[in-house]
Structures are given as structure tokens and as C-alpha cells.
Design brief:
By secondary structure, the protein is an alpha/beta fold. It contains 27 helices and 31 strands. Among the domains are: 181-361, Isoleucyl-tRNA Synthetase, domain 2 (Alpha-Beta Complex); 555-732, Orthogonal Bundle (Isoleucyl-tRNA Synthetase, Domain 1), CATH 1.10.730.10; 763-884, Helix Hairpins (Orthogonal Bundle), CATH 1.10.287.380. Strands 7, 8, 9, 10, 11, 12 and 13 form a seven-stranded mixed β-sheet that branches. Strand 22 (498-503), helix 15 (508-522) and strand 23 (528-533) form a beta-alpha-beta unit. The longest helix is centred in the last third of the chain and has 27 residues, at 858-884.
Length: 885
Amino acid sequence: MSLATKYNPQDVEKKWYDYWMENNYFHSTPNEKEPYTIVIPPPNVTGVLHMGHMLNNTIQDVLIRRARLKGYNACWVPGTDHASIATEAKVVAKLKEEGINKSDLTREEFLEHAWEWTHKHGGIILEQLKKLGASCDWQRTKFTMDDDLSESVIKTFLDLYKKGLIYRGYRMVNWDPSAKTTLSDEEVIYEEKMGNLYYINYKVVEADGKTSTSGIEEGQLTIATTRPETILGDTAICINPNDERFKHLKGKNAIVPICNRVVPIIEDEYVDVEFGTGCLKVTPAHDQNDKELGEKHNLEVIDIFNDDATLNSFGMHYEGKDRFVVRKEITKELESLGCLIKVEQYMHKVGTSERTKAVIEPKISAQWFLSMKDLAKPALDHVMNDDIQFHPAKFKNSYRNWMENVRDWNISRQLWWGHQIPAYFYGEGVNDFVVAKTVEEALELAKQKSGNQQLTIKDLTQDPDVLDTWFSSWLWPMSVFDGINNPNNEDINYYYPTNDLVTAPEIMFFWVARMIIAGYEYKNELPFKNVYYTGIVRDKQGRKMSKSLGNSPDPIELMEKYGADGVRVGMLMSSPAGNDLPFDESLCEQGRNFSNKIWNGFRLVQGWEISESIEQPKSSKIAIKWYKAKFQQVLLSIEESFEQFRISEALMSIYKLIWDDYSSWFLEMIKPEYQQPIDAKTYNETIEIFENNLKVLHPFMPFLTEEIWQNITTRTPDEALIIAEYPKNETVDSQLIKDFELVTEVVSNIRTIRKDKNISFKEKIDLIVIESESINKDFDVVIEKLTNSNSINYANEKVEGALSFRVKSNEYFIPITSDINVEEEKAKIEEELKYIEGFLKSVQKKLSNERFVNNAPEQVISNERNKEADALAKIETLKASLSNL
């Protein structure tokens, strides 16, 4: 068989992905097997593949391919999320480029554009995942706006509303002025930023509105604020009733600068006498704490902002200007009026939108909320008792903290793209609405509620808001199997609960917690058994990879350069669960090199001539016996790593097994002499060993392994590697593995001596051993082959005039040939001995230092003791070598 001299991923990857698809290996239907199910964290429908997706989906593909090999009915459900805010923003931007404003369109017209955008861009990221090798059940691909998923969302809303868990109310919400919608608390990112603290004077007047007759200082008060533009919405000044400094202000009023609004000076212990000036401006429309003060003291609420954070008519001559422009201009006006006392730099937390990065505005608005306290309890309990396990477990603490302090979920968004809220208004009153699946049902309910039988459908107006995107994705593990609409269908009963979820810790509250809540509410069962949290992919400087920083490579270009397998290995090499991945392109190069190493090993074996008449050499027999034992040991380690979700450790075990044990040792041990054939028994057993290597490696490197598997022999579709049987665990011969460790040391020592003494490998040597510790002599034939020794002889006395070395307590001697200058050899050994003795002295000096031993970390002390032991052993060996010369 003619094989390419170099492995080329470009020639292989599409071929085998198409083959897998054509033979329907990814598709799953319920059967008698045990299911293994994962659902993809649905990427935004408008998204393209980034490094975070690469890591997350590589891990999922490793899990699903391994489950498939282990005989499970493996089902990986793919899909995309409609992503209300992100998608609507992209559609609005596209329309703007075409000279169209969203406000000039009807809802129906806008949705036509949104669907057109979705159909054009929606499948891009899923197609990119195929290049990665993702073995998703593409026939089950779902979209959160599919009819059945949309029906699930509305049905859930109606159910929770009937249970009294969904309510509508005026609340202070997080307003994103860029997207012009509310956000949940979890979608607001608080960042420490340096800003300014502005000290502003307000004139004090008597309760009857006349100017205070007190002295100048008593006729005014000073407040401190980071947002001077909001003074135009002030409706009170608040002081602490126990603050002696401001007794003279009690019962008086203040005049807000610029707008000259007369506002009361109220008293409340909420005011921190230590912060700022001790006088607090109260703006109920633009701060949560001020809102609560306003409700308590019946203050007027004045909203000074439009939805895009420009000022409205209450902004007076600033109307129509952006809030940050006004901040600069109003500062100058206050200064010109003599009201601005000073400005200080001030570090404070600023809330920004997770999606648009805009600075959030607190805003009072009528919104829909889901009461979370009772819903959250079972979801908390079942994580804390490990019914659902987090990997790593450290994330349980964050989860518990959020769930114990959970706030009601603001589920409405002021957007058009998404699931429109099934609420219908029939009057002007706050409670003049009904909730129903259809407008016809709403009409009947409205008639009953209002008592007005004359109402018609034309009198009803559906709430224009849509539901938060997460309100659809929290149902994902159930809705993809139609488990909400048809709670006892075959798919949901078979595939649910799913097994493992792979996701990022930053959406633990957005998504993971809510899926768990939904699972217990609608199935009284967990949605998945394990949650594997990936880390963030960072660059070498520790920065999160992002397009805006320009520090993120294009995943498609990486795969074209290094092959999908190379990139998969590169990403997983240093990606322990929950820890960030310091990505370096050299990791992908390492993955590509691994591909080439395996390919070259395959070419070597395939290039051997096979003979049926040659008897199997003893060296090959023991080599095969050892490697099978080693394979079983590593297989056990791989299983343990997967059980504990240490995926990168599993990969490293396989990497070392194939690179070191198989390629560097095993193939050398069974390799026939130059231009000689290999015996058929050894060849066949080597192929079996290689096939088992491919099976454990396949989840990580699917393309390379399938290519080699299919080239080993002619295979039918039923014999493809993707559906092969995973190796079974057998008893591990630990002693044989331990015995071989001694062999590797002996061989390495002899090779070093050959190199140092310029003894050609073609030149045969004799090896004499004084055995103090038991040696497995079955390996003698291996040592002879790998070191080109005539024979291994066992003796009771030291050999004079020989080079020597020690492995454990056994001594090995190589008689000196006439080509070696004994005096030169002695000089070299003495020089090395002198150096090692000096090194030992410095280590022992350190260890005799009581202060060092008492204060240094335990690991540092351990390292120094190891250095001491190594130096003592080396000195003993060198002295033995001298005595033999």
C-alpha cells in the first residue's frame, strides 16, 4: 500500500466528515441501549466561531465520541439561540446602512428583515463546527424561534402566570440605552472606573418658600454626586435625623440649581453621615435607593431621560443632548452660577451592558417579572447535595451565593425580535390586561374581567415587548425533545435527563441555574448530571481573547494551518476544567507534530515485509506482553480522568503512551533488522495494539485516527472507527511495568556511554551485571537488541578495567575496548566527581540551615532533599567507575 510521506489534514478531513454524515453515524433514535445525551450551549444565531466555542465544542465532541465508542446511544443535540439583543442590533445596523430606520417600519416589516438576516447568517457557526469535527446529530438541529420551541416558551409563560409566579409591576430596572431595552441583573457587568465627585451647593429656603434668614453658610447646603446631570430630576434633599450638623435644615426646603425646583429637605437614617457631605440629593427616577426613599416619603418621580439616554423636556435647554455631553456642559453652567464648589477624582463601580457595553441607566418602568425565591430552592438543594455535580466543585460556592440571594427575574425586553409576550391590554388601567395563548382566548378573558361584553378583538393590544432570550434557553434540555408541549413523548422519556453539560462559568446564573430551576419545575428532575465549566481562552499576556483587542486568531485559519486534530489537541493540552487556557499557537503546532508522529509510525509498520515462516523473537514476545500491560494501566488512568472530568489529563496520558511508550520503545523493540521481514505473529499483534491506540485517541483526534483505521485494512461502513468497540479494562500486570522501568534506565545509560565514549552503535559490546535487586531476565533480550550487546552475563564480583553504572542497587559493567584511553577516562570521571561533590556540599549547607528549613515551603524542601539523594547516588556510581578503571 502506498501512503503519503506526510500527513495532510486537508486531504483527509472533509472526506471523513462526509463519510460519517453519509452513513448517519451521528444520528440517534431511542433504542434498547443506554442513552448518553448532551445538548449544545446554543451559540447566537448571528455568531461566528471563536476560540471559546472551539474549546467548548471540542470537549463536547470528545465526550460524545467516547460515549459512542463505549456502546452508548450517543445523542448530541445542536442548535442556535435567537439572541434578541444581539440580533436586533445587527438588523438595525444593517437597515441603517440601507437608509432605513427601525422606527419607520411596522413590527411585521421589521421581523421580515430579521428573519431574512437569520436565514442568511444563522447556519454559519454550525457549518464551522463541522470543520472542527463536531459529531452533532444535525437532524435534530433546533432554533429557539422554531415553532415548537416558541410554543414551549408561551406555554411556560402562561403556566407560571397562572401559578402567580409571573407578575407585572413598575420597578427600577437596568436600562440599556443602546439596545433600548431592560436587562436582568446578571446581564450588567460592574467595572471599577475612575470618575469625578462633584460638590454642588443648593440654596436653602424656609418652608413657606422665603429665603432662609440664617447666615450665608446656613442658607445653603452642599451635596456630592458623580452624576451632576441628574440634579434636574431631584425631588428632595435627605439628611440623617441624628446628624447634629444639619439640625438647622429640618423642616426647610432647598432650591435645585438651574431648574430652580423647590424640594423638601427630608430626614431618614438611610443617609450615611460619613459619606460625601452628609446631605443626599434624592432622584427617585434614577437610583434604586432613591426610589425607595421616594416611595417612603411620597416624593414626586421625575424621569429626565429618553430611552436612548438623551435628556427629555425635563432637561430644559439640554433637551435632546446625550447624558455625557450634558454632564460636561452642566458642570460648566453650575460653575458659572457659583454652585460648583469643587470636583474630586473618585473611583466607583459603573454598570455596563454585557451585550452592548453601554453604561446602564437605572429606570422605573412597567415590566414583567418572574418570582424566583420558591423556584430556586430545589435547584439549590440538588446542587449542594451533589445530585448535580459541578466540575470543578469550587463553583458550588458561587452558585449557592447567587441562589440564596436570588432576585426576581425581569423577563421582558423592549424589542421586536423574540417571543412576544402573550398579554393583551383592553383599557387604560394598570391592571387592564389579560394573559392568553391567542387573541381569541384573550378577548373572552377580557370580557369576563372587564364585564364589558361589547369588547372586540380590535379593542385589544398585545404587549409589544418580547421575553428575555434566556427565558427560551432555560427550557433547552427539555424543549429540544418537545418535553414541554408533549411531556410524555418517546424522546423526552428516553433522552432526559441529559448526562453532561459543557459551558462557561460566566453563564452559570444566566443559563445553568435557570435550566436547573426549570428542570425541577417541569420534570421534577435534574436536567443534567454533571456540569463541566471550561476556562476562558486567554492570550500569552493573560488577556481574554476578543475581536476588539485583535488578539484572537481565526479558528478556521488555525484549522487550515494545523489541521482540526492539531488544533483540538493544542487547545486541550493545557485546559483543565474551570481554569483559564493560556493559548499559544505553538500548542497547535505541537498537536500537528503529534499527528505526524503517529502517521510516521503507521508508515513504518506498513512498510515492513511480513513473513509467515519466521518464529516470533523472544524480544517481540516480551515487548508485546509489556505494552499490553502498560496500555491497560494507562486505560485505567484515562477512565479515572474522565470520571473526574480531567479531560486534559486523559489526553496527556494518551499522548505519553503513544509518543513515548509506543513510538519510542515498543516499535524499537519489535522492529525487524534492516531490510529483514517481520514475523506475522508480531505484525498482527502490533496492528491490534495500534488499533487500540487509535480507539482511545479517536475522541481527541477523529480525522487522523479514522484515516489510519481505514488504511490498515479494507473496512465496511459497519467497521468504521467512529462506531468501533472501545477497549475493555483488564487486569494490570504492575510488576511487568515496574520491571520495564529498570530496562529503560539500563538502555538509556548504555546509550549515553556509547555517545560519550564515541562507541559506534554498530560495534557490539559485552554487558556484565552484578545483581543485588531482582531483575526480570525476560527483558535481557530487549536490552541486548536495543543496545547491540553480545550477551548479558551475570557475575558476583566487580569487573576490573570496565566502564560501569548503577541502576537501583544493581551494577552494570561494560568491559573497556582498546580504543578507550583509561587515563583520560579517569580524569573525566574525577572532574565530574569533584563538581558533584561541590554541588552536594551546597545543597547540604542549605538543608543544615535551620532558618531555611523552617521557613521554606514543603515542596522546596522536598526538592532539595531529592537533589541531595540524586547527588549521593551519582557520587557512589562515579566512585565505583573509578575503582574499576
